[in-house]
Design goal:
By secondary structure, this protein is an all-alpha fold. Helices cover 57% and strands 0% of the residues.
Length: 388
Amino acid sequence: MKKLLISPSNMALGEQESQIYQNILKQSTEISLNLMAVKVENHPEDFLGWCYELLDVAKNRINFDLLDDHQLPTVKKLQDMLISAISFLQVKTLRIAPWPVVSDFITQRSDVLVLDEQLKLMDYIATLRDDKLQDMIVEDRLAFAGKHTAKHDTSVYQFDVEWFASTKSAKGFHQQFADLPDAFDEALAHIPLEGPVTLENYQGFTIAFLSAFNGSDEKPTLAPATRLLAMRRPDVFTPITNNRLDALCQALGVTRLNNRDFERYWQDIVQAIAKMPWFAMASGTNELESKLAEVKALLPIFFYYADEDTKTSSNYYKLLHKPKRTTTSSGSKSVRRSKESAATLVDRALSDESMPEHIRSKRDSIIAEVEKGRSVDETIQLMRTIFG
């Protein structure tokens, strides 16, 4: 272990990497005895490989039974620092990587990235892009904005709507978003659905987005705005989240943005990524590459750290594996839907060509059950059982 810990001192590290290494060493001091008890046979010769190896030690090979309670936060902080370092190092490669390297990197990690599910979300968003937010059912509106709820029926939303920058913690934004969807329609209207997006387009969006909060105690922040922009034009705008902003800004070589840096977001994020070699080269030689090229501004997100737990952290996965509801003496809590939402979700399910006609004829009954909170799949299966 000692050899592993000191090996980066013999690597040709840049200034940023050296600072990251020193910070990791400082964090390791308090648990140095626990780390030294771990036998290490793999000694990577590059800093990225070193971070992965030490992270594996800190997550899977250290003896947690021998740790004191006060040491557990230290281990967690060390893990977080290593994850941030890995994200930084991987995103940094985008500054010089050609398109084939970028697409290959994503393709080879498709399983750990849950790539199929993430691209399903973007396919679904593509069907909404021509619609106004104020005309969408609530579930679609929240899918566009990046906030999961129990109303996102897995038979329709076969993905976690919070991929590509969740906004669930942006409570002020969601209050305004629910009350004034037309104001955010006005903002998005400044961004053309195809063709070049200019600084003037972006400035028009920004002014309208900020205006949507006029007269409100809620404060407009950058992160949810970038989510809306990324869903409108995933080939232009990269969404940001606070927990990954350090790694992104470090990788791009810019000062960390604050939550009101609308001007710097255009210059330091959007324009910086657009100037990268792979961005201009993005094109498809197969179906997957073509899909990636269509959402090329989202690709830096695939370079953040991901592992085997990424799949199980998906809200879609959690809903699929949620224990079945059981009836108790106190009853069970159902998530009621509006009649409009229930009808839309049911009609989408019934539009499947394989759906029997006698099930389609029960549309009104199915809608009534879904409105009460039963899932679409569960209701249709119940109808199949009753009516054969």
